[in-house]
From TrEMBL:
One of its GO terms (molecular function) is kinase activity. Residues 258-438 form the Carbohydrate kinase FGGY C-terminal domain. Pfam families: FGGY_C, FGGY_N. The keyword Transferase applies. Coiled coil: none annotated. Keywords: Carbohydrate metabolism, Kinase, Transferase, Xylose metabolism. PROSITE patterns: FGGY_KINASES_2. Residues 6-243 form the Carbohydrate kinase FGGY N-terminal domain. PANTHER family: SUGAR KINASE (PTHR43095), XYLULOSE KINASE (PTHR43095:SF5). This is FGGY family carbohydrate kinase.
């Protein structure tokens, strides 16, 4: 007997993941395709957009092969962002996609656009100042630095919208993603800001705007032949992975904060009104009329993976040794800015620092310091959000990093926050499947039924003084080393490009 289900696929920084989910929220099949980004120069992070579709096709065929009696009723798409992938009039990419805030190449364009438009007007229209996270300066960078590609470019995509195009032929982008193509989106009017689109993005055609769970179109015959998904199945517009992850755990109500433990750490606070602060990102939400204050660390899982590689260890070893190291990592303090930093310092030229090293320290101490560094970064973001007016009352954890209890406990201890952990933490692909189910159901499902909270992580009050003191040192260490870090970053930009290769 056919099993009615939805497919959700998310294109992430280090992999694409897909799930096949039935009407009760049970996962029937999962598939993953690992990939690497390209770092052709220091500060550049790119990816071939064609890979997104190739992996989608491969994933959906694997999912459907695992469950031959699946009756697919809807398709959900999601992806990292904000990315800038430019395509020609047919949607064929004209160059690799420039990724989100970890790509810091557009510094000159950020400065020029800010000087021209002014901070007050930028924040009035778009909600945020321009940073490495903003899509607009990256569009201008392509126009100025890659004129051959620009001459062929006619359309703007992110991973979810590129998949929607290939599946349905619809050229759409969701409001949340559009709000991060700063400064080209009007946050209050919820539409493209025509004067600035014409000034900075023409002759690109502005994509039609929809909300994440809206139906973009239906699977075409050509897409059905490639993917195995039947022709005519509805496909949602989708959105950026962090927001789809928030949906997957029900963390999108006023007062909610989602912590996404992934290659980078992402935070999304849902607020009752538009909040503006130069330290964070003001965005539209996944659903009509909602607003977010968002932030992101440039490294988290990327930092722990780096330590695993350079020490030649595996995660179980490192976690066990970090547990033994204990709170404070035996006097080590790390700044996690190994790829610059996004919020709240907005410093692409920040660099990693490990302070307090002695000959007695080992890899477990380093790993513990890395976990604490990301936790200190989360605390810095949370405190900045609260200072801006965000009333954070509930924190939900999601993503691959939630599989390790130690990391969760360190974050709770450092921040003083209780974290809720739901039954399913695979994140954006599951959220995309849920959005698709809601789009096609007569009675949309509730995420609390699909994915209930099964664990809570409470901070240890005995560690409050320890981590209060460490947080103070964390702030002072950045202030005291920033000048030297910036000089080193400048030197790195003039070294051979292969310095930046993975």
């Amino acid at each position: 007997m056919p099993v009615r289900c939805t497919i959700g696929v998310d294109v992430g920084t280090s992999s694409s993941k897909g799930v096949l989910v039935d009407e009760s929220g049970s996962i029937l099949a999962q598939a993953t395709r690992g990939h690497e980004v390209s770092r052709p120069r220091t500060g550049w992070v790119e990816m071939d957009g064609a890979v997104w579709w190739e992996e989608f096709v491969s994933i959906t065929r694997e999912l459907l092969a695992e469950v031959p009696d699946a009756e697919v009723t809807g398709v959900g798409v999601s992806g990292m962002g904000p990315c800038v992938l430019l395509g020609d009039a047919d949607g064929t990419p004209v160059r690799p996609a420039i990724l989100y805030g970890v790509d810091t190449r557009a510094g000159a364009q950020i400065t020029a656009m800010t000087d021209e438009l002014g901070v007050p007007e930028l924040t009035r229209v778009g909600g945020s100042v321009l940073t490495s996270q903003a899509g607009g300066p990256k569009i201008v960078w392509i126009r100025e630095e890659d004129p051959e590609a620009w001459a062929r470019a006619r359309r703007l995509f992110m991973p979810a919208s590129f998949l929607a195009l290939r599946l349905t032929g619809a050229y759409v982008l969701d409001h949340q993603s559009a709000s991060q193509v700063s400064p080209l989106y009007d946050i209050e009017a919820e539409r493209w800001h025509a004067p600035w689109w014409e000034r900075f993005a023409a002759p690109l055609e502005a994509p039609a705007l929809q909300w994440a769970g809206d139906i973009a179109g239906t699977v075409t015959a050509a897409a059905a032949a490639q993917t195995g998904i039947p022709e005519g199945v509805p496909v949602i517009t989708g959105t950026i992975d962090a927001w789809t992850e928030a949906v997957s755990v029900g963390a999108h109500g006023a007062g909610d904060l989602m912590l996404m433990y992934g290659t980078t750490m992402f935070l999304v606070a849902t607020v009752e009104e538009t909040l503006r602060t130069p330290s964070m990102w003001t965005t539209a939400g996944a659903f009509a009329g909602t607003r977010n204050l968002a932030g992101g660390l440039s490294t988290s899982g990327a930092l722990t993976a780096w330590l695993k590689d350079v020490t030649g260890s595996d995660y179980p070893q490192l976690l066990a040794e970090a547990e033994t190291s204990g709170p404070g990592a035996r006097g080590l303090l790390m700044l996690p800015y190994f790829a610059g930093e996004r919020t709240p310092i907005q410093d692409p030229d920040a660099r990693g620092v490990i302070a307090g090293l002695t000959l007695e320290h080992g890899r477990g101490d380093l790993y513990r310091a890395a976990l604490e560094a990301t936790a200190l970064g989360v605390r810095h973001n949370v405190e900045t959000m609260r200072q801006a007016g965000a009333d954070i009352r509930r924190i939900v954890a999601v993503g691959g990093g939630t599989q390790g209890r130690l990391w969760l406990q360190v974050v709770s201890d450092v921040t003083g926050l209780v974290q809720e952990v739901p039954a399913i933490t695979i994140g954006a692909s599951y959220g995309a499947a849920f959005l698709a189910a809601g789009a096609v159901a007569d009675t949309p499902p509730a995420i609390a039924d699909w994915n209930p909270v099964t664990d809570t992580i409470a901070p240890d009050p005995a560690l409050r003084d320890t981590y209060d003191a460490l947080f103070d040192r964390y702030l002072r260490l950045y202030a005291g080393t920033a000048d030297v870090a910036h000089e080193l970053a400048a030197a790195q930009k003039h070294t051979a490009p292969d310095l930046a290769q993975p």
